[in-house]
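Repro:
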Amino acid sequence: MGSYNVIIDPVTRIEGHLRIQAYATPDGKGGGTIQTPGLSSSTMVRGVEKILQGRDPRDAWAFTQRICGVCTVVHGLTSVRAVENAAGIKVPKNADYIRNMMIGAQYVHDHVMHFYHLHALDWVDVTSALKANPATTAALSLTNNPNYKPNKGALPNTAYFQGVLDTLNSGLVSRGQLGLFSNGYWGHPAYKLTPEQNLLLVSHYLEALAWAREAVKLHTIFGGKDPHPNLVVGGMPCSLSNNTGAPSERSGGTSLNTAGLATVKAAIAKMKDFVDQVYMPDVVLVAKSYKEWANFGATAGNFLSFGEYPDPALVKTEMVDGAIDYPAGYVFPQGVLWASDLNALKPFDQTKVTENVAHAWYTGSDQGAHPSTSSTILNYTGPAPDSPASYMLDETARYSWIKSPRYDGKPMEVGPLAHILTMHARNTQPNDKLVRAYVKTYWTGALGLKFEQLNSTLGRIFCRMIETKVIADQMAGRAANASAGTPAYTGWYQLYYNNRTGKYFNPNAFPMVAAAKGKVGFGYTEAPRGALGHWIKVGTDGMIANYQCVVASQWNAGPRDASGVDGPYERALKGHVLADLTKPLEVLRTIHSFDPCIGCAVHILDPDGNPLVQINVNHMI
C-alpha cells in the first residue's frame, strides 16, 4: 500500500515557524500509523549571535531578550548570568529573590496560556460546545471547579455559560467567523470530550485571556515594562525601600516600597488562585478522558536540567572542573537522568554540551563542538523559496535551521517533564516530596497510570501542571523573603555617567569589565520550555568576541545528528496512530505538548543575509 506523506507546514499555535514531516502506513480506512521517527525542520534562521560580536557584554541582555517575544525575561536573565560568571560576580540575595519572582511569573503565565490558548484546542472541540446544555455545564463547573466563580460571580453559573454559548453561536460560528478558533480540525474522530466539558473549557479559555494581565504586573513593577523588562549585570535595576508612602525622589525615588510589594503579593495570589481552582482541575479533566495518550509521544528517555530558582542561603556558584557546584540549592535541580535509571540523578557538567550541524544549514562541526568555540555561519542548501508545500525533506542531508545539541553525545529532552523527573529523583528537598505526592495522588492514583508512562504526550501536560503548582506556591514565599531597605545590585555595576562630577566613566576601567577580559562565561536558566544556556567569550578589549545560545527548543526540536540519531520531537512521533491521514491532529497533540518556541531556536535575516533593522542600545540611556 506504500506510505503516506504527512506534512504540517507551518505548525501553528506556537512561537515561530516549524515544519513537521512524517511517513505513515495507511490502514485502508483513511487512517494510518507512523512507523519511523519524523523530521523536525525549522524554517527561520537566527543571527543574534553575530549581532552581539564586538558589543559591550553588559548590553548583551537587551539584545538576547529580543530573540523571542514569548520567553520575555529568560534570555535576558541568562545573558546577565553569563557575564556575571565570566567576571566572577555574585549577586545579592534580594536580586535572586526578585529574579525568582520574575521568572516564576513567566512560568505561571506561560504554562497556563499554553494549556488554554496553544494546546487545549488539540483536545477541546469548539463546535461540539455549541451542543452543550448550560445548566449541565454549570453543574459540571461546581464539581470540577468548586472554588471558582466564573466571571467573578457577576452572573449565576447557568446564565454565564448561556452567555458563552451565545457568544460562540451568534457571534462567531453562525457567521462563519471563528476568529481565535479558526483552522481547527473540528469534528475530528479523535475528540472525546462531552459538549458540556468542551463548553466549560472554552469558557476558561476566554477567562484566561483576562487573567494573563496579572502575571505581567510583576515584570512591569520589577523591570519597568513587559515584554523585555530591564535587567542589569550584577543584580536588578530596582531597589527596595522601607518607605511606606508614595515613592518620591527624596524618599526612595523609583525604588519598590512596601506598597509596591503589596501589589506584587496581590498579583501572585490571583495567579495562584487560578492555578489551583481552574488550571489544575481542567488538566485532570482532560487527562481522564485521554489516558491513552500516556502511551504515545515518548522520547529516548534522557533528561537534562541546568537548575533554576536559587535559594541564596544554599546556592554555591563556584565552577568546579567545568561543573557548577549547587547540588541542593535550587527548586529545579541541576542534573542528568539517563533512560537506564530515572531514579539516579547524575551531576551536570557544562563542558559535555555540544552543538552538531550535520543536518542543519550551518558551517561547523558535524560531530559537535562546545558552544564556547562554535559559531553561527549560515550554509543553506535546502529547497528553493518557491518550492511547493508538498516538497519532501531529505533526512540524509541538511534540513533545518536548528542545530542538534547533545549532552555527552546523547539527545536530551528538556522542559517540564525533565524538571519533575529530576525533582522526583533527587527526593531531598521539601518540593521534591510534594512532587512525589502529586505524582502518587494524580498520575498513579486518580489516573491509574504507571510512573514510567510519564515519558509521553500526556506526561508532559501533567508535569507542566505540577511544576506550575510548585512555582505558584513558591512565589508567595519569595515575595515575603524580599527585604525592603536592602540592595538588589552589587558594587560591580556602575552607570556610565557620574551625577556628582558630571563626567563619564571609561567603560574599560570598570572592575567588571577588567575582571571579564579574556574570560568565558556560562549563563543558564531553566526557561518554561527547559534548559537554556548562553556562552560568552569576552575579548582582551573587554568587548564580546563570541556568543552562542543553546535554547530549550533546540534540545527538543533539533534534527538528526551525525550518527543519524533523531531529536526528541522526531522520536516522539514514532508509533502514532492517525484516525485521518489528511487531518493529523494526533501529530499536533504531541508536538504541542513540548510547547515549541522556534523563535528562540532561530531568528530572522533578509534573503540576502542583511539585517532588517539596526538599533543602538546602550544601558547608560
